[in-house]
Amino acid sequence: MISQKAKYALRALVSLARAGRGQSRMIGEISKDQAIPKKFLEQILLELKRAGIVNSRRGRMGGYELLKAPEEITYGEVLRLIDGPIAPLPCLSKIAYRKCVDCQDETACEIRHVFERVTLATRAVLDQTSLADSLNLEDIAV
Questions:
Q1: Which of 6, 35, 40, 100 is the S-S candidate for 82 at Cβ 3.0 to 4.6 Å?
Q2: What is the rounded average pLDDT of the residues 74-103?
Q3: What are the pLDDT digits (tens) for 27-56?
Q4: What is the CATH number of the domain that holds 38?
Q5: Which range marks the domain in which residue 131 is found?
Q6: Which CB contacts under 8 angstroms, 24+ apart, belong to 49-57?
Q7: What are the angstrom distances between the C-alpha of 83 and each of 7, 8, 34, 40?
């Protein structure tokens, strides 16, 4: 399950992607349109800015904008940034691997084998789905 913070981050990024390349949106606009608490959104956007995904500008024409094209920002990238590893078991994590305390032998662990398949499938979808893809899915659904 993804965190509420990750869900808000994705909704904010989709909102920025919808605005178009080179267009900025004010925090208040995003907060209102996406029903995200403004203070929480400020923290999320700051984290996304530090990661080089968004940029902020001050002034009358200020706000936040995407630094990368929507096609270059994947759901997997954002989820790892906000929530950390995409793995239901610590022994399946790429970036935070840890042997399970109660495991005798990973190669013989039936539970690990099943969740490894789930994890690989999940990662494949998340790492191959961009913000642009999700916008196109919205267009198809309408």
A1: 6
A2: 90
A3: 999 999 999 999 999 999 999 999 999 999
A4: 1.10.10.10
A5: 1-142
A6: 51/81, 53/13, 53/77, 53/78, 53/81, 54/13, 54/16, 57/24
A7: 10, 12, 20, 15
Predicted confidence at residue 140, as pLDDT, reads 41
Give the number of other Cβ atoms within 10 Å of residue 60's Cβ: 6
Adjacent-strand bridge partners of 65: 55
CA pair distance 13, 83, nearest whole angstrom:
16
Predicted TM-score (pTM) of the model is 0.85
pLDDT at site 141: 44
For residues 130 and 71, is the Cβ–Cβ distance under 8 A? yes
CB atoms inside a 10 Å sphere around CB 64: 26
Which residue in the block uniquely carries the two structure tokens 């001050």? 58
